[in-house]
Every structure is written in C-alpha cells, then in structure tokens.
Amino acid sequence: xxEVFAQxxxxxxxxxxxxxxxxxxxxxxxxDIKGRNPFKLSVLQIHFEHLLxxxxxxxxxxxxxxxxxxxxxxxxxxxxxxxWCKWILSYIYIELNKRFTxxxxxxxxxxxxxxxxxxxxxxxxxxxVYEAPYDEAHLRRAEDEIICYGVxxxxxxxxxxxxxxxxxxxxxxxxxxxxxxxxxxxxxTGHFQQSSTDKTVFSCGDLQISYTxxxxxxxxxxxxxxxxxxxxxxxxxxxxxxxxxxWRASSDVFDATSDLSSYALADALAKASWKSxxxxxxxxxxxxxxxxxxxxxxxxxxxxxxxxHEIYLFGQRLRNLGDVSSIKEAEIEHMLGYVYxxxxxxxMGKATIKNVxxxxxxxxxxxxxxxxxxxxxxxxxxxxxxxxxxxxxxxxKDRNYKLSGSLTSPLLQxxxxxxxxxxxxxxxxxxxxxxxxxxxxxxxxxxxxxKHKTPKIIAPEAPIPVSPLAVPFTNEICQLPDVTGGKxxxxxxxxxxxxxxxxxxxxxxxxxxxxxxxxxxxxxILAKIKLLEDVVYxxxxxxxxxxxxxxxxxxxxxxxxxxxxxxxxxISLRKTFGGQLQSRKFxxxxxxxxxxxxxxxxxxxMDTLLGISGMNEILQAVKKCWASxxxxxxxxxxxxxxxxxxxxMAVVIQEMVPCDVAGVLFTCxxxxxxxxxxxxxxxxxxxxxxxxxxxxxDTIELQRDPEDQxxxxxxxxxxxSRKIIAKDVEGITLEEVPENEKGNCCLSVEMIMRLxxxxxxxxxxxxxxxxxxxxxxxxxLYLFQSRPVTSGTNETIFxxxxxxxxPLRLENDYLTVSHIAEVMPGATTxxxxxxxxxIFDIGFMEEHTEWLFPSGCPYFRCSWEAxxxxxxxxxxxxxxxxxSESIDYFSQATMIxxxxxxxxxxxxxxxxxxxxxxxKKEASLTEMAKLVLSAGNRIRKMEKTYANYRIPYxxxxxxxxxxxxxxxxxxxxxxxxxxxxxxxxxxxxxxxxIFTVLGKAKGGFDDDVxxxxxxxxxxxxxxxxxDVPAAIQSLAYYLSxxxxxxxxxxxxxxxxxxxxxxxxxxxxxxxxQFMETHGHRCLREVSQQxxxxx
Length: 1094
Hints:
Blueprint: H1 2-11, H2 14-28, H3 39-54, H4 57-75, H5 78-100, H6 116-119, H7 125-131, H8 136-139, E1 145-151, E2 157-164, E3 169-177, E4 183-192, E5 201-204, E6 207-213, E7 217-230, E8 233-255, H9 262-271, H10 281-287, E9 290-303, E10 309-320, E11 329-339, E12 345-353, E13 357-366, E14 372-374, E15 376-384, E16 389-396, E17 400-407, E18 412-415, E19 421-432, E20 435-447, E21 470-472, H11 481-501, E22 509-512, H12 514-520, H13 523-537, H14 542-558, H15 563-577, E23 586-592, E24 608-612, H16 615-628, H17 632-640, E25 649-655, E26 661-666, E27 677-684, H18 688-692, E28 698-704, E29 710-716, E30 722-727, E31 731-736, H19 739-742, H20 749-766, E32 770-777, E33 780-788, H21 797-801, E34 815-816, H22 820-823, H23 830-843, E35 864-867, E36 870-874, H24 875-878, H25 889-899, H26 906-916, H27 925-933, H28 935-945, H29 959-969, H30 974-1002, H31 1007-1018, H32 1028-1042, H33 1045-1050, H34 1053-1062, H35 1066-1078
Antiparallel strand pairs: 1-2, 1-10, 2-3, 3-4, 4-7, 5-6, 6-7, 7-8, 8-9, 9-10, 11-12, 11-20, 12-13, 13-14, 15-16, 16-17, 17-19, 18-19, 19-20, 21-22, 22-25, 23-24, 23-25, 26-27, 26-32, 27-28, 28-29, 30-31, 32-33, 34-36, 35-36
Organism: Stegodyphus mimosarum
Family: Belongs to the PEP-utilizing enzyme family.
Transmembrane segments: 12-30, 51-76
C-alpha cells in the first residue's frame, strides 16, 4: 500500500504532493487501528491503483484530492488525527536528519587506495576516540560504559560491565557460570578506577577491560575475589579467581543513533507527549547513544584450587555513552542473544522515554553470511510472574519470525539509596522459530532520584609558565611527572598523603627538575648522545654499544654545572633543611619521566647514591644520576620498552633515615598480581640490600579478604647475613648481622599489620597496586617510594598464542589449512598475517564467489581466518547448503582444488545446512567470467603504473619520520596487491571451470580427467610459475654436463651458490636466467621476514 502511495506522490507536483499526503493520512489513518473497519483501506487502495493505471495524476488530482480530503475529515477521530500528523512530521524530520547527518562509523571507502585509514589498512583516528574512556566533561553529564557478554550451549555464561563515574570511581559487575554449574559473581559500586596513563583501559578495582585494537579486539582481565555459589548454596563463599580473556569482533556495528527504523521511530515519537512543537530527536539520540557489535570471548579462567579452564563464548559488546541528564523518566531494555544451531546473533531493544518516545522497539540480527540486518515490524511483550518474566516477540527479517523466551529473577542489580532498581541483569533463554538460544537481559530505569550526583569540580590550576629548576616535595608542582619525573612526582603525592593520614613520614627532600637537566645538557653531550643512537640503532655489537655508553657517561660527569642550576639546587636545599644541610646525609636517585609508571618501572636500571653529604658531593651525585641513564643496562632496558634514549630526567635528593629495619611491600603478589595476597620483604638496616637483591630477606605474606581485613598467612626467614647501616662520619657501611638476629623475623606482628594497613591506604590513594619502599626507625614508619606494580596484568602465554585468532561462527565450526599450507607452512609472523589479510580483504571486498563471502566490513573476515598464526579457510562458508549425496560438479572440483579429494563428511554438510538453510548463493557467473577475461589487462596495467615505484627513504632524517610516512602510504601498492589477488582468483576459477567441464563430461573425476587436465595446463605459454619445474629440470641437466654430481652435492650452500654465479659454463647462464625470472619467489613469501631467492 505504501509503495503505491509513494509512486503516486512521486508523480505529482510539490503542492499536489502535500495535499495528497494530508488526504491520504486523513483517510488511511482514520480507519480503526485494530482493523475493525478495513473497508476504508480497500477503497483507498483501489482509488490509488486506478489513478496509477490511468496515469492521470495531474488531472485526476484536481478532482480526487478535495474528495479524499473531505472523506478523511469525516472518517478520522481526533486522537488518530493528532497521532498521524505527528507521525508524518516525525518521519519527515527523521529522514531529513538521516540525509544530512553522517553516520559516525561510515569511515571507510574501498576505492580510496591512496588513504590507508579509509581503506582499512590502519585504524582511523576516530575509532580510537569512540572506544577510549571519555574525559571528565563527558562523565559529568553522560554515561561511559562497556558491557561484554558471551554464552555457549554447555551452558557457560559470562557478563562483565564497567560504568565510569565523574568522581574517579566506577561501578562494575561480573557474572560467570562454568560448565560445572558453579557461578561466580561480583558487584562493586563506587570502587576506584585504577590510575593509568594508558588511555585504552576501563577499570574498576581489579577488573580491567581494554581495547588492543579499536572495534576489533579487546582484553578482559580480572584478578580478585568473586562470590562462588551453587544451586544448593546461594550465599556461597569468596574465592580467588583470575581470568584473561580476549574479545574479537565478528560483525559490523549497530549504532542506535543512526540505525533505527524510520517507521518504528516515527511511530514511537508520535505516541509520546512532546514538550516542544517538533520531534525531540536530539534528546532521543543523546539517551540512546550506544552501539553494539557481535563477537566471541576466548581465554582461560583460574579458580582457586581448580585446574585452569579454557572457555569459548559467543556474544556481543555494548558501548554506552548515553546522556540522560535532561530526561526525567526512562526505561530502556536490551535483550542480547545467540542461537546455537546456526550461529545467528539477535539483539532487540525497547525504550520508553517520557516526553520523547513510547514503546520504541528496534533490533538487528547477524545472519549466516555475517551480514548485519535490521529487524522490522518488531513487537515485544513482557509478561510478569512471580519468579520469571516471559517474553513474546515477533519481527520481520526476510520472513516472519516468532521469538518466545523467559527471563530469570535478577542475577545482579544496582540500587540507589531509596531502594529503587536502577539496572537489572537477568538470564535470557529463548527459541526463534524453534531454534534454541540464550543470552542476557539488561533493563535500566532512569529517574531523577537515580541519577548520579555530580561532585563539585575543582577548576584545574593554570599551567606553569616556567618550570622551576628545583622544587621541594611539599610544593604542589612536585606532583607533576613532566616536571619531576616518575619517582619525584610520586614522592610529592606521598608527602601530601602523609600530612592527611599522619600514620607515616616521608623524609624531606627536593627534586632537581627536568628543566634543570635540559639546561645542563651541552652541545658536546648531545653530539655524544647522537653517536650513541647511531651505534645502537645500526645493529652494532654489544661491546661497541658499551664503549659509546661509557663515553657518554664520562662526558656528562665532567661537564660543569651552570651557575643558575647550582644556585637553584642550593637555595632549595637550604630552604628545606636550614642550617642542618651540611650535617645531613642524603640519598640521590634518578627520576626519569618514563620511570615508575604502569608501563615501565625501570627499578634498579639507573644509579642510586647513598650517604651523600655536602654540596659538592650532592652536585656530583646529581650528575652521576643523569649520566646513569646512558649506562649499558639502562640503554638496553629502554630499547626493550621502546623508550627514547635521551629522556627528560629529574633527580631526587632525599634525606636519609638510619632505619633499624627496612624493605619493600607489594600490595599484591608481585609475580601473579593476585590482590588477595600482600607480600613484605625485610632486612635489618637500610632497604638497599632488599631492593638490590644482594641479601636474602625475610618474606612475609598477608592474606587479604574482600573487606580488606588482613591475617598473617606465612613467614619465611631469610639468611640476612649482612645489612647496610648509616653512620655519621663514614656515611654508609656494610656489616654482618649478629647470629642471634639471623634466625628471627626482623619485623614484629604489630609492625607487619601496621605496614599492611598502610599499604591498603596508599593503594586506594593511588588507585593501583603498589610497590612501596619503607623503613622503621625509632618506631616511626617511613615511606621512601611508591611505584605501580607492573607485572600483575601481563599477557598470559595462552593470550599470546591466540592473539591474532579470528572468531568462530559456531561451536562446531570446521576449519582447514587446505592447499595454503603448501605455500605457507607453519606459523606466519604477526606483521605478515596482518598485511596478507588486509590485502585479501580489499581484494574480495563486496565480491561473492562460490567459496568466499564478500569482506565488506573492516572489523572481521568472513570465510578465512587465522588460528595459531596459521591461515585457514572456514569450510562451512565454502559448502553452504550442500548435501553429501548431491554435490554438484563445480563443488567437487573446488574440493579437489583445495583438499585434493572429494569430501564425504555428512556431519560437516549437516552443519552447513543448519547454518545456511535459508541462504541462497549469490555468486554470479557473469562476474566470474568478467574476472577471468580481465586478468591479462589488469597485469599489464599494473606493470605500467608501478614500474618505477620506490620509497623515498633518503628524504627522511629520523626513523620516526620514515615510520610515519610508511603508515600513511602503506596502501599505495594496494592496487598491485589487489590485482595479484584478482588474477590468482581468475586463474583458480578458470582451472576449476575446465576441470568441472572435464569431470562432468566423464561423469566423475577419474585418472583420465586428471591426465587430460594436466595436458591442458602444459599448453599454457604465458604462466610464469608453470615454467618452474621445467626450468629446474633444465638446470639439472646442464649442471650434470658441467660438474660431477657427487662433487656438487658435497658443496655447502654458500659454495654451490658461489660456483653457479662464477662458472663460465652454460649452467651459469641458465642459473642467472632462472633467478631473474623466478628469484623474487620464496617459501612463506607473505612473511616480511622471509628472504627471496635473489
């Protein structure tokens, strides 16, 4: 009906169109919505069809428009009249909005071969912005939330959620169910977000969700307590659980701000009462500012006392940025599910927002061909009962679907102070047209009483116009890492905390800033550093690097201090210590800008000088610290972490405390990152023996429960043979520990507990697990340093092995290396995998073949994937809809080409039928023929276009400039690569056409068919690679003529190569010709590390 109406309106003039629309609405929408008076619709349809058949819109409109208009006025009711007027206005408004608003994920263009980001070779900058945690300004008015879930048929389930808040805290929940039937839960409200300079991480306490590649790969990590429950024990117990999981995209993006059905949206808008004269589209977009991707979750889970468990789940990821600050009441429901049998993902949402929309239903499904299709004509009905909610739904996607399911009582829910439910999470089981699936229901109610109270925002201080040369710990400037480095800024923060808590002391001191270092460095030092960079990056030997490192250190140490820096240090020290400066002893330590951070601790890599006294010694110690960053060990460490060799460096000058006992406290296990265990290492005297590892210390472990209550878990007495003590005259000295003290723990239980409780307070202040250097003297507790623990969240071996794996489509998916393993045996390098896949993705974009789906989405691949760094084809895509007893000849030829035999695995074909029962092949014979016939022209065009192509590497002064150029221009050769893919595909298709014809003529593929096919292949004269066997045979013949075969076999590879290159015999010329023609090829040639024959 609407199509007929659209054709009519399209043929009219503008004024006639407007009148006709109003007339149509009055008549059509005046009918009873429940269908009790279908006569009016029939009359109107006959009327339009009559006009359409006669083609008399212009003349007919003069008569029919007034008649229709009058008839509509008589038949319409007032409520329907206002509804449909709003519907039309909303629909026009929506369509105009879509027409003039760019969809935020429309970032790619397959024809933009000169733009690496638009082509998908590199990730567009916009996706980093969308996926990263948002700033405080956004958090004060809107959500910043990430939800990942997954299910399988065992049934195992996982849901993790982090919602960030503007008070530097976050809410989080975890629901995990394993095959054993045990469930594990976490619900944290108002817990700290971990402090991190890495802008890819969402965190709440011990839960971290971070992207490793925006829109494509995420990491889910948890290490901490979860509540274990069973069917017989709902209260359960707290157990330590650690999981490291990878989420991988397997679909395009559904964006709720732009992908909603115009008809459904207009209907929901028309049902609501607006506060303005126009549809509140902007409010709706703000409230429904979220997007969803389907994907898989794969990784390992460690539960205390149980073996490691591997898990593979199918689900979706929801990124919510909704702004409900201007919404008084709203109810938004998400139903996310996965169908086990054919691997479809189904999402349905329902939203009612006061004065905006009412009963807005929307959703999408991921089909067997991985295409994301919007659902239409959705109805969702939820029926409440005592313990369950029942859901009934119908929707249209190529045909009618019926979905029925049930929702359990809430697994997790967030409550406000008044007890009203804000967010409720339930298990969701359902059937779609008889196919079973499961997932999660997430319901959210928003009201004024539930909204976060925005904390008072303190305006940031104005930036420092000129950085000082030296600052005391008590100065606020000292907390800025760019000014005072990692260690210096941490001491500034610790000093401030000590004033607030008054439970520990930070020894006084100052920081010589990074500005002082920049002013100190002379042209002579810079020249030496440049030489060091040249030697390091040119692949010289370790001895050469050590020699230049020593030269730079000596140059720094013999350079005189500028007067301004010397005076600034002395003034700052005298203001801090007064007249006692000369009598105090100091520890002088490095404080580089990249040091003591989440990414790199650099502990022990640079010099620490103890027992320093007097200005001359202090100044010389400062220079030694600056020089130590160019020591061989420090340089190797920086190279490993990709750090600049000459980084801005501050120096800490801190008063020494003659400790009775000192050591290090880790607020989590330093090896595994387990936060339920705190570790203390201690020795008598100063803590340097513990930090440097020169003595075996006492080791104490504290058990930490979920409420941060501590109990003594274990005490291991170390050898503690020597200790370092501070003396007034000699500075520091190494002494033997008395025998009666060696066998005792150097800390009392009271001191241990005091340390543990302080460690928790410091951890909460920094919002990360900490590595704390401490000391006791005269029963006072001193803290000297606090750095983040960097080892606890490291990637597992399992993660590294599966980092580049693609997503499975089904639990019983079929994969094969097929004939690819012949040319690419074994694992391929990550760079080779990424490059190879991107080239083939572009080559097959938007193109259907018999064995591949088009890879029109840059976030995942369809028909082939990587697993364990091996290339594999997805067999269920290659033989979609096939039956083992009725395989067509072309499919048989495909099997022989890929596998060397005809497959007869009925289980494989059953999986193919389950997944593709309703799917039709879209491969076009015309397109295939066009591909084959155009191959030759494509090669000639590429040869002409890229004959003189080169990378202008000589124009760049630094490696960074060259790298940036390569990243920008990495798609310049895509046309060549795509041409190669197309030609290879054409060759394969042509061969299979011939093979199919021969097999069909013979009634099967027997030896005669193989012989005939081989004979046809040998007639080809322009296939270069086909010449390789004959060329090698020719080489062998001429080789036997020139040299005894046994003598040649005795040569090493280098000797044989040298002989072939130098011999005047015919074999030498033949070898040269062979290398010129085929020398660019090699085994595993898609890997950039593989060397060609030349």
